[in-house]
Design brief:
By secondary structure, the chain is an alpha/beta fold. Helix content is about 30%, strand content about 20%. The strands form two sheets. It has a six-stranded parallel sheet with strand order 3-2-1-4-5-12, with helices on both faces. The protein has a six-stranded parallel sheet with strand order 6-11-10-7-8-9. It is elongated and about 60 Å long.
């Protein structure tokens, strides 16, 4: 397939989405008249949808993603998935190289511990579960997919907040099914209501879910912060505005 070197020509943009940044970018590009398709993993039954075209479900790995982009004549791909969507991000890099399509990663900055905050840095879910002391009252904000790592915690209390309830959890757990973002007042109330001693969260970064960290610092709740996975190298920006500008300036002929 021959693609134009003129970035002013019509573009077909694939956004690997599921985040607030992905929605904002799709909305902005669609408003400008771009042909935008947002791909969603399909893990929640009623996701917040951006403007433009929507594709739900997997591609069948990097090869399937590359094939889809060729068939759909995609000219630009933006990986705006969650910072912990390591497999999708790795597939995006491999597929972009195979299909010879420019790739940008839109990745929100990671959180850093504020002065005076009680943060426990851990590399993964297993380490997070192991870090909880006896008698801990833990508030999990890690998503439904990773709750299993905490199923063997027997000498503490678990409160988990998820968008959609899991099929099964150990007896005694409390499940809060709510979709964010949440205000500082909301987060403060949850921590107080359940007498939480430890907040367990992924280092997702960004402002949308940061209120829980502020509430934890105010109330003296320890934060167990799970580090981001290491992703393959890709051109990366931190803001929707920078990604929007990238689409305007990068030629479809450019190869990652």
């Amino acid at each position: 397939m021959t693609q134009s070197n003129d970035p002013a020509k019509t573009k077909r943009i694939l956004i690997l989405g599921g985040t607030a940044e992905a929605r904002a970018l799709a909305n902005a590009l669609t408003a400008r008249g771009e042909d935008v398709t947002t791909s969603l993993a399909g893990r929640t039954s009623s996701p917040a949808l951006p403007k433009g075209k929507i594709r739900s479900g997997g591609f069948g790995g990097a090869d399937g993603l590359a094939r889809y982009m060729r068939d759909a004549a995609i000219t630009h791909m933006i990986d705006a998935t969650h910072p912990f969507a390591a497999r999708i991000s790795a597939n995006a890099v491999a597929a972009a190289q195979a299909a010879r399509i420019p790739l940008l990663r839109l990745e929100r900055p990671a959180w850093t511990a504020p002065e005076g905050a009680d943060w426990i840095a851990v590399p993964d879910m297993a380490a997070a579960a192991a870090s909880l002391p006896e008698g801990a009252r833990a508030f999990l904000t890690i998503g439904r997919q990773d709750l299993a790592a905490f199923h063997d915690v027997r000498d503490g209390t678990i409160v988990a907040r998820v968008i959609e309830p899991p099929e099964a959890v150990p007896s005694g757990w409390t499940i809060i099914a709510e979709r964010g973002p949440f205000t500082l007042a909301n987060e403060r109330a949850v921590l107080k209501a359940h007498a939480i001693t430890h907040l367990v969260t992924k280092n997702s970064g960004g402002p949308h879910m940061a209120a829980k960290l502020d509430a934890a610092r105010e109330l003296g709740v320890a934060v167990v912060m799970i580090a981001r996975p290491v992703l393959p190298d890709a051109e990366t920006v931190a803001t929707v505005e920078a990604a929007f500008d990238w689409v305007s300036t990068v030629s479809p002929s450019r190869v990652v």
